[in-house]
Design a protein that fits this description.
361 residues; alpha/beta; Alpha-Beta Plaits; 2 domains; six-stranded antiparallel beta sheet; 15 helices
């Protein structure tokens, strides 16, 4: 087998940009495999979190990127010296995304903090295509914010390059979504959504950043129904990583009684088509649930242009149960035995859309 040093020396002879990028991708893949196979005696807490991220069953699919595309930035860390590769510097990043007219997600705001929680980046970004849904209830971003934005994705890549090329570990919650919209491929990652899980969670269910931060750090990132702030979310994922680094603990986290009770007062709406704007969803839900008060926490789709979902938060379990009964639709049970209804939404455009409304427990 060719040694890594020989491979790096060979890579440096390539001059064509596209050839060099392909070989950087290969060097980064080899680094990922090396990090996966390291023995426990070589672990630092940071390396343990990287390895736990990479050992998750969904890591390979979540972090498979079209990195060879011209507009992607590929970190060159796999070709650097062992000193740079061993760096335990960390930066946490979080992005806010909007829905564009072609069904893809567009980057509109980026926040990043360093290991000491110092803000190193907080910028608005102008997508290169028309926006059809600002998702303001989620993102906190308005059309006015974007009208004044001048930066592009490439500008943000250049801002982050100085940290990534120095060997910093990239930290985030469902970080693959942020890396995909940033069009950045970097092998040293800590994804708190893959590392940690709740003891009562189904195998495929990843913890929310808010719930995880409350369980591990003792406080909420935001109140239910309040829009996201990418700087706060980046700091929250860094806080979670730092808590583990300071004193490693079991990554299967026990939810509090308060969290378990809160599940009973929520409904989960899923498989919502991307062409249903989140603002319109609010109106439709108001019709479904009549005068009952609720808060809507919308979650973007896992893939660009894919279906998205939302959590509806009520003031009590009784209100949630009544709202579920009021939903018109065929009642069934999902694969885990939870009751749900298939409901059809009528849009003002004349289109119809179907989605599922499900109980959380």
């Amino acid at each position: 087998m060719v040694s890594r040093d020989l491979l790096v020396a060979f890579l440096t002879t390539f001059k064509k940009k596209e050839d060099l990028k392909a070989l950087q991708c290969r060097a980064n893949s080899l680094l990922v495999e090396k990090l996966k196979q390291e023995t426990p005696e070589n672990y630092t807490p940071e390396k343990m979190l990287i390895r736990l991220t990479m050992k998750h069953p969904e890591f390979s699919s979540d972090y498979s990127f079209p990195s060879l595309s011209n507009d992607w930035f590929v970190s060159d860390i796999g070709m650097k010296s062992s000193t740079v590769m061993k760096s335990t510097d960390m930066i946490a990043v979080d992005c806010e995304m909007v829905l564009c007219d072609d069904g893809t997600e567009g980057l509109v705001r980026v926040g990043a903090v360093d290991r000491h929680l110092k803000v190193i980046l907080d910028k608005y970004v102008k997508p290169g295509k028309p926006i059809v849904d600002y998702r303001t209830a989620i993102t906190g971003v308005t059309s006015l914010d974007i009208e004044n934005a001048t930066l592009s994705v490439a500008d943000i890549q250049r801002e982050l390059q100085q940290y990534l090329s120095d060997g910093s570990i990239l930290v985030g919650h469902s970080l693959n979504k942020d890396m995909r919209v940033l069009k950045i491929d970097h092998p040293k990652v800590i994804d708190t959504a893959l590392v940690f899980k709740f003891s009562n969670a189904r195998n495929s269910r990843k913890p929310s950043l808010n719930d995880l931060h409350k369980a591990i750090c003792g406080k909420e990132v935001r109140k239910e129904g309040v829009s996201h702030d990418c700087v706060h979310d980046a700091a929250a994922s860094m806080n979670i990583a730092l808590a583990f680094i300071k004193k490693p603990f079991d990554t299967t986290v026990t939810p509090s009684k308060e969290m378990l009770e809160a599940e009973k007062s929520r409904l989960f709406i899923h498989r919502i088509p991307s062409y249903v704007p989140s603002e319109k969803l609010n109106i439709v839900l108001a019709g479904e649930f009549h005068s009952t008060k609720f808060k809507l926490d919308v979650k973007p789709g896992k893939t660009q242009g894919g279906n998205y979902c939302a959590v509806v938060v009520f003031d009590s379990t009784k209100e949630a149960d009544q709202a579920f009964e009021n939903v018109n639709g065929y009642k069934e049970r999902d694969s885990f035995g939870l009751p749900q209804k298939l409901s059809t939404l009528k849009l003002s455009s004349g289109l119809s859309a179907s989605c599922y409304v499900r109980k959380m427990v």
